[in-house]
């Protein structure tokens, strides 16, 4: 049974070496297998031709290769964005988006099947939480998208901003980051990785201790505690003062500035008063630097009642408050590139086919 076998794609070189030598094979075999998996991208033991047939069979008895499978691929007609729906070994599905920017190619990956955080503007929230992704399932999203394009168009940066809250799957995300940046494997510098959180304060402080060179991005979306309590229920546990204190600590410990995400929602968080409040809250966090906010017009998601606000107008208001703001280019509008929409549509279709009515409460 796959469950009783070890997920080999989630193992670091030293962990794989311990497993392989425990099977009585020499150390160099572990190096060969790691290279086959993470450099050559061979995901079938019987195709690892430098290994004997007998050893391939032993590996097959001991391990399984947990690669997500691309089930659906939507390519934008408006830009080069591609959205993948991956099917996992337990039948769950997740999304990954591949975006082309002038500075390179970015993959936005999922870290959980569903999410517990319940943000009101999010397509994933009503579907609830199923489970955490394994390191292999996170890495597999990148390997799958890499395999879909020529070598010169491989993914050069990764954002953990798809379905799920990365810091709610802390250990697996850390293991994924170690694998992603492993010199003998994918070898992608963590300087090209952005981890986005809705604000799990204890985990932000834990991440600060890891001192990784990644960029931490906090999904703020609102500077008013009462409104944020409603928009993002995580705020009831970790209100803005506590969250921004943690951002300041993160900066002091790592020397890396935290960036902030702000989905501009018409009539909710885009007024001059909202900009002034955001300025008052953010300026003290990094006293010697102007804070940076990424503005995104909120994605229209059925049932939320939210509409995109005027991001460029809000950007001007923020500049007056001493905040650097950039309006994020919206990519792949025609292919449902907003987080969780393709998965939500797929689950709704499957629910209809199997006779389950509706999706809420799952
Ligand atoms: S926006 Fe992110 S953290 Fe919030 S519910 Fe959606 S996936 Fe979870």
Task: Write the SSE topology.
Blueprint: E1 6-7, H1 13-22, H2 27-38, H3 53-62, E2 63-64, E3 69-75, E4 82-87, E5 93-101, E6 104-109, E7 112-114, E8 129-132, H4 135-147, E9 157-160, H5 170-180, E10 193-197, H6 201-210, E11 215-219, H7 225-231, H8 234-237, H9 240-254, E12 259-264, H10 272-282, E13 292-297, H11 311-320, E14 324-327, H12 341-353
Parallel strand pairs: 1-2, 6-9, 9-10, 10-11, 11-12, 12-13, 13-14
Antiparallel strand pairs: 3-4, 4-5, 5-6, 7-8
Helix pairs in contact: 1-2, 4-5, 6-9
The chain binds iron/sulfur cluster (SF4).
SSE order in H/E notation? EHHHEEEEEEEHEHEHEHHHEHEHEH
Shape estimate = globular
- Mean pLDDT score: 91
Q: Using DSSP, what is the number of strands?
A: 14
Secondary-structure-based class equals alpha/beta
Sheet with most strands: strand arrangement: 3-4-5-6-9-10-11-12-13-14
- Per CATH, the class of the largest domain reads Alpha Beta
Count structural domains: 2
Helix content: 25-40%
Distance between the termini: 27 Å
| Quaternary status | single chain
The ligands bound in this entry are: iron/sulfur cluster
Beta-strand residue percentage: 15-25%
Write up this protein.
- The chain is of the alpha/beta class.
- The chain folds into two domains: 2-64, DNA polymerase, domain 1 (Orthogonal Bundle); 69-353, Alpha-Beta Barrel (TIM Barrel).
- It contains twelve helices and 14 strands.
- A ten-stranded mixed β-sheet has the order 3-4-5-6-9-10-11-12-13-14, sandwiched between helices. It has a two-stranded parallel sheet with strand order 1-2.
- The model is unreliable at 355-362 (pLDDT under 50).
- Bound molecules: iron/sulfur cluster.
- Iron/sulfur cluster binds at residues 115, 117-119, 122, 124-125, 163-165, 198, 339.
- Iron/sulfur cluster binds next to loops.
């Amino acid at each position: 049974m796959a469950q009783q076998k070890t997920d080999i794609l989630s193992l670091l070189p030293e962990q794989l070496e311990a497993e392989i030598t425990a099977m009585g094979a020499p150390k160099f075999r572990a190096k060969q297998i790691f290279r086959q998996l993470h450099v050559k991208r061979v995901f079938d033991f019987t195709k690892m031709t430098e290994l004997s047939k007998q050893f391939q069979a032993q590996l097959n008895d001991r391990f399984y290769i947990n690669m997500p499978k691309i089930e659906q691929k939507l390519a934008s007609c408006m830009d080069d964005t591609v959205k993948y729906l991956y099917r996992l070994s337990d039948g769950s599905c997740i999304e990954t988006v591949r975006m082309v920017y002038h500075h390179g190619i970015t993959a936005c990956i999922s870290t959980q099947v569903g999410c517990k955080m319940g943000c009101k503007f999010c397509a994933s929230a009503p579907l609830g939480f199923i489970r955490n992704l394994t390191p292999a399932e996170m890495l597999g999203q990148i390997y799958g998208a890499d395999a879909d394009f020529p070598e010169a168009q491989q993914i050069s940066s990764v954002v953990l901003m798809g379905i799920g809250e990365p810091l709610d799957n802390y250990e697996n995300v850390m293991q994924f980051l170690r694998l992603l940046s492993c010199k003998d494997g994918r070898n992608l510098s963590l300087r090209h990785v952005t981890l986005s959180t809705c604000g799990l304060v204890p985990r932000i402080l834990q991440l600060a201790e890891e001192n990784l060179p990644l960029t931490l991005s906090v999904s703020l979306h609102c500077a008013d505690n009462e409104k944020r309590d409603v928009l993002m229920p995580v705020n009831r546990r970790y209100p803005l003062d506590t969250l921004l204190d943690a951002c300041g600590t993160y900066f002091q410990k790592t020397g890396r500035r935290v960036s902030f995400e702000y989905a501009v929602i018409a009539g909710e968080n885009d007024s001059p008063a909202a900009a002034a409040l955001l300025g008052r809250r953010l300026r003290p966090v990094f006293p010697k630097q102007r804070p940076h906010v990424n503005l995104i017009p909120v994605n229209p998601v059925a049932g939320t009642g939210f509409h995109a606000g005027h991001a460029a107008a809000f950007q001007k208001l923020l500049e007056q408050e001493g905040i650097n703001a950039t309006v994020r280019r919206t990519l792949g509008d025609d292919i449902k590139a907003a987080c969780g929409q393709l998965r939500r549509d797929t689950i709704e279709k499957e629910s209809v086919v199997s006779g389950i009515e509706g999706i809420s409460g799952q």
